[in-house]
Amino acid sequence: MTVADGTARPRNPAWDRRRTALRSFTREFWASRPGRYGLLILLAFVVLALAAPLVADRSGLDTAVARANDVPQWASPSEYPPLGTDYLRRSVWAQFVWGSRVSLFVGLAATVVTIALGSVIGVVSGFLGGRTDAVLMRFTEWFLVIPFLPLAIVLASVLGRSVWNIIFVIGVTSWPATARLVRAQVLTVKQRLFVDRARSLGASRTHIVYRHIMPNVSGLILANATLAVPISILTETTLSFLGLGDPQRPSWGKTLVEAFENGAITLRAWWYFVPAGVGILLVVLAFTLIGQTLEQIADPRLKGRR
Amino acid sequence: MNAAFVGKKILGSISTLIFVLIVNFFLFRVVQKDPVGSLFRGSRVPQAKLDELRDQFGLEDPLPTQFVLYVRETARLNFGISYQTRQPVWDEIQSKIWPTVLLVGVAAILSALFGIIGGFIAAWRRGSATDYSITSSTMVFYSMPDFWLGMLLLVGFAVMLPWFPVGGMSDLGSSATGIEAVIDRLHHLALPALTLTLAYLGEYAIVARSSLLDVMGEDYLTVARAKGLRDKLVRRRHAVPNALLPVVTLAAINLGFVLSGAIAVETVFGWPGLGRATADAIRGPDLPMLQGLFLVFSAAVIFFNLIADLVYVWLDPRVRPT
């Protein structure tokens, strides 16, 4: 291989291999129609969330400003485009746009907590085995059986309402499934010949975990993470709906509970609660589609099943 | 099924129950430094009386002693007094169990039935337009918050088209008896039950579909066809019975959620069950009530998980312990 100035440089086979793997992964992902659609929907929402200040003025969330500007209450989308107003004269479109930030952020951050806890416990349990494994798995089993939503409700009630508490609560209640999955994968990777070879060449346990175990479970962890985001988002919505959301920040769940509690249903003010629900539905669907595609690429046995 | 295996499973469930008790005890002890004080918050009770009550509840004792006391009282179904209604928590819970069992039970049966049938049809015609529409529609229902679906149905079929009542379990003040009361109850049940059925359907359809697809690759189906069995018979006698296994386990596990499965949906429809009681207790916050509800919800899940484990072993000889 020659670089621009003409001097030869030795190829790094590891990087070559990774580049090829990445390229074939991208090609395989894009070839899947569900994966492609999911990614496009998700990108649209990410752009919306990032561009929030450009597409919807934050003052639309302020009742005082709306009152000063003579914005009507409960205006339908045709009276106050694009999505009408609520009982406090706030713009529903502004709530939708700014709410997408909180919902996406909580969904992603809670997933990071879930996956971090779940993979550490899964890898430690599966790799060390023996008594550590037995103790950790018993603990995981306990958490797995306790009903997830009631536990989240109890924790959130105890901790108080804030975005950070919700992220913590979702993370702490939903890691066990990941831990079990990662542990199972670690157990099969551990049996493979290349791990024995590394060990007989004198590799330390840390080296084996980082260089041999982790690369082989990371695909699965990524797929699992993508599939955990929908659960986080739906949980955030439900907790907000039950009155455990952050009172300071507009989220889709908060829009839904406010619409419900202020009689949007009997007033037929569908524009108040339809957009937030559609937003949740699309984002959840997007993550599910992407996650299933990743899972299929990570585990080719699943092919043809979906 | 041998006794040792059953014993081990039961012990496992008991250990989970103890874990739940510990979680419940400590979580609520963390926030509730002074349960007696919060019980009488706002009302004038002499200090001496408060101290006497604190002593009576054992709040001055060290934590381990308090825990033993808590377990003993819980075993006697004494869950404390609700802050909101001033009634014993267990009485409150008891009066709200049956509405929830009715609602979620009906939805569980309907969703299992239609979900399994839909999943099997999709698998048997894999790749067809039928498969595509079943799979994608169940996925859409699976992706929406269940209470939002409830709100949509409510605005559509109770407000805009006033076919169904907007909430509750029966018409207020109605003195109907007999068949009329039953019809009234069903009329109120229709929308919330439909909401939950649609929300649960997806899981069954997905599991049933992939389970049948697994079975369809098996050699014994090829053998059955080679024997000259018709497609319909191959499906009914060989494929479906074997594919039902994971679905039955799922159904047994889901029965555990019969009490806690409709927290937000009950709130939307004003259904007077445990779910709405939870939402009301959150608003208080009515901590003794939340604590009792959490325990009851967890106990139901633990019990039905045990049943699911045992049923699975009974149905599938391959995992039967020797």
Mean of pLDDT of chain B: 84
Helix coverage percent of chain B: over 70%
| CATH hierarchy, class of chain A | Mainly Alpha
Helix content of chain A: over 70%
List low-pLDDT spans of chain A.
none
H/E topology pattern of chain B? HHHHHHHHHHHHH
CATH topology name of chain A, in short, is MetI-like fold
- Largest interface: which pair? A-B, 41 and 52 residues
Biggest sheet of chain B, open or closed, and with what strands and sense? none
CATH hierarchy: architecture of the domain at 96-279 and 294-313 in chain B: Orthogonal Bundle
Question: How would you characterize the overall build of this protein?
Answer:
- The complex is a heterodimer of chains A (306) and B (322).
- Chain A has 306 residues and is mainly alpha-helical.
- In chain A, 74% of the residues lie in helices and 0% in strands.
- Chain A has one domain: MetI-like (MetI-like fold, Orthogonal Bundle).
- Chain A is built from 12 helices and no strands.
- By secondary structure, chain B is mainly alpha-helical.
- Chain B has a domain at 96-279 and 294-313: MetI-like (MetI-like fold).
- Helices cover 75% and strands 0% of the residues of chain B.
- Chain B contains 13 helices and no strands.
- Chain B has helices spanning 3-31, 35-39, 47-56, 63-75, 89-124, 129-143, 146-160, 178-216, 219-226, 231-255, 263-269, 274-283, 287-315.
- In chain B, helix 12 packs antiparallel against helix 13 (287-315).
- The radius of gyration of chain B is 24 Å and the shape is flat.
- The model of chain B has no long low-confidence stretch (mean pLDDT 84).
- The chains are: A mainly alpha (306), B mainly alpha (322).
